[in-house]
Amino acid sequence: MPDKLHIATYNIHKGFSHFKRHMTVHQLRENLRALDADIIFLQEVVGQHTGHAARFENWPRGPQHEFLADSVWSDFAYGKNAIYDEGHHGNAILSRYPIMHWNNLDVSAHRFESRGLLHCEIGIPGWPENLHCICVHLGLFKRGQSKQLQALEQHIEQLVPQNAPLVIAGDFNDWREMASRILVKRLHLTEAFELTGGRVARTFPAVLPLFRLDRIYVRGFHVQNAQVHQGRPWSKISDHAVLSARMIRR
Fold first, then answer.
1. Is the dihedral of CA 5, 201, 32, 132 positive or negative?
2. CB-count exposure of residue 55 (10 Å: 0-12, 13-18, 19+)
3. C-beta of residue 97 within 8 angstroms of C-beta of residue 122
4. Nearest to 247 by CA among 10, 73, 2
5. Cβ–Cβ under 8 Å, residues 167 and 216
6. 188, 219 in Cβ contact below 8 A?
7. Of 48, 67, 120, 173, which has the most beta carbons under 10 Å away?
8. What InterPro entries does its record include (predicted)?
9. What domains does the chain contain, in order, with CATH numbers?
10. pLDDT for 75-124, tens place per residue?
């Protein structure tokens, strides 16, 4: 029975480098394989884009989450958030373990910024309860973030049993550090980097991270270590750094 879990979260910037100078989705797949996480939370994942497919000869034929999962992560879920003429993008979760159920909650604060919460229940062999994973990408503005965090709180209270293990990870766009007021103080989660380093991690921009935008919150785990993957080669793939954490089930 696996009692250890290695997870990662990454805003992949739709498969392009900083300022969209280069398509990076092939290098991204190799780097994610090297990271070797059990479950990966991804934001800004392109499900379809006819313009990019026509422009780039080696653009993946299928959705990015399927291309990235390939033969390494046997299960995946994709939550479509932003829809436009050429296609759509959203959040995705890649998992080595079976995804038993999933749903995508629209938490868009206004029509100019489409956001969602992708919630998966994952069956870990030998665990008495499913692992609940929520991939988050919140809006840029304080008022919208506040409403989205309230929606996240209500969603957890209604659908996640208190004794079930829970991981919430993603791009919170939370340089004001508001999220912990709800998730730590009211829902009794732990932020991996607050626990191991005293404060949430700097993740943006990936070349020299200054802003603390991305998070990993957990409940029902002991966090062994947490790491920011920045600099090369990661800084050449996306504008965000990657976060990872190794944890033991309590």
1. positive
2. exposed
3. yes
4. 2
5. yes
6. yes
7. 120
8. Endo/exonu/phosph_ase_sf, Endo/exonuclease/phosphatase, GPI-anchor_lipid_remodeler
9. 4-249 (3.60.10.10)
10. 999 999 988 889 889 999 999 999 999 999 988 877 777 889 999 999 99
